[in-house]
Amino acid sequence: MRTYGTPVPESTDGPAGPCYAPSDVERWVPEPDKRPGRTAFQRDRARVLHSAALRRLAGKTQVVAPGTGSPAWDAAPRTRLTHTLECAQVGRELGAALGCDPDVVEVACLAHDLGHPPFGHNGEKALAEIAEPIGGFEGNAQSLRLLTRLEPKRFAPGQGGTPGRLAVGLNLTRAALDAATKYPWRRGGRPGAPASPKFGVYDEDLPVFRWLRSGAPETRRCFEAQVMDWSDDVAYSVHDVEDGMRAGHLDPRLLLSGPERRDIFTVALARYAPGTDAGALSAALDRLLAQDWWPHRFDGTALAQARLKDATSQLIGRFCLAAESATRDGYGTGRLTRYAAELVVPEGIRLEVAVLKAVADRYVMQRPDLERLRAEQRVVLAELAEALRERAPEGLDPQFAALHAEAAGEQERLRVVVDQIASLTDASARSLHRAMTTP
User: Are 179 and 107 in contact (CB under 8 A)?
Assistant: First the structure.
């Protein structure tokens, strides 16, 4: 059996790379390559890596806010950017092991949270309420909007051949954009769950969405997107628990307590594994606790930190190797790309990840002090949106001020305001709120 992360031997057949069609490297707006020798997907990766949108993730909280650890040790929590980089490392290796172009998967992982607004999922919910009259707000749809419209990189040709409005964003290849699309449907279009708040494209961005999905089965995610999604699940389920322990919010000994376990399983059944038997969740948690490397105590010492770090590595390897092995069992040893396969994750492994998500939810996200903070954050965003709508273009960055001036009607102007707020970091949202609401 190969070790997780061992890549399939490289091949150089075809201008688009192995198992990728010429249409996969097409861009919304054709452009010449500035330097021969790079693949189209390497160019995609470089564009996302150098984007301002990626850099802004450094100022967005993942789970534990910096400086909130126990007095006994420094929590050094992850930001949304460090989570993204870790997700990209996991996805690149897993994708390469399964025969994907590793740059395509890494682009998808680097891009998957670019539309993440200030204040995390709480900010996402607040912006969804603000944007309800214009089709809502969803972080994944916002990521697509950034990649294809808002992130300044390439211009669509204007009249007379002069640069026009910023309309093509990073102008990534079709395969890269498709790989970054976690939810390939409009609002209300999730198969079997039309009421789901998860969707991947706003109506005004449908032209580029239809282009990137050309030839794709309706609502089906490409293989690289599935690898990205699983890598995201693995990274944040493992690392959120690690950060919770390091910050002193989670004592791992609580996972042996009957009442505490019941609370965890209640969260898991409600949010992460609906329809699952509680006994299966209990068995999943017990499998993890039975591992020799599981950290049953954490006191912040160097030894405890090393054991915890080893546990995170063991968990990532466990979850990725299980998916790699099961997928290979189902689809053989060849290169798996685009729509040639489905990522297979054993049910027991999915439940182990779901339990870890529930542990982080129960002990970190459900802290009473966080609920007070979340309420205050929602007020900040609601008041900021109201102030910007009344006083724009004042308060808007030059890019969004220009788009606001060009907007045809109140709905388009509101979308510009939402785009501006979504681009802010946690700190810049608070700063702009103070500037816009202080007499």
Answer: yes
Residues 203 and 112 in one domain: yes
* Cα–Cα distance, 57 to 117 (Å, whole number): 9
DSSP state, residue 204: G
Residues 255 and 399 in one domain: no
- 201: which strand partners? 186
Domain end among 189, 213, 237 = 213
Enclosing domain of residue 92: 38-213
Cα 122 versus chain centre, distance? 15
- Residue 121 backbone class (left: φ over 0; alpha: ψ -120 to 50; beta: rest): alpha
In whole angstroms, give the CA distance from residue 52 to residue 152.
Answer: 9
Structure tokens at 180: 């970054």
CB 355 within 8 A of CB 281: yes
Q: CA 225 from chain center: how many Å?
A: 11
Residues 141, 69, single domain; the answer is yes
- Given this model, what pLDDT does residue 3 score? 44
326 HSE (CA, 13 A, CB side): 15
User: In this structure, are residues 180 and 108 in contact, taking their beta carbons and an 8 Å threshold?
Assistant: yes
Nearest CA to 44 out of 76, 74, 88, 83 is that of: 88
Half-sphere exposure at residue 195, Cβ-oriented, CA atoms within 13 angstroms = 0
Compute the distance between CA of residue 273 and CA of residue 324 in angstroms, rounded to an integer: 22
- Split the chain (439 residues) into runs of 10 and give each run's mean pLDDT: 41 52 93 86 97 94 58 67 96 97 98 94 95 97 97 69 64 97 96 93 96 95 98 95 89 95 96 95 97 94 94 98 98 95 98 97 87 92 97 95 94 97 95 93
Cα–Cα distance, 51 to 355 (Å, whole number): 34
Is the CB of residue 147 less than 8 Å from the CB of residue 169?
Answer: yes
Domain count, the chain: 3
Task: Clarify whether residues 187 and 287 are in a common domain.
Answer: no
- pTM (predicted TM-score): 0.91
Omega prior to 439 cis, within 30 of 0: no
CB 236 within 8 A of CB 83: yes
Residue 352, both tokens = 């182990």
Last residue of a domain, one of 155, 184, 213: 213
- The answer on 305 and 259 residing in a single domain is yes
> Is residue 33 a part of any domain in this protein?
no
Kindly state whether residue 272 falls inside one of the protein's structural domains.
yes
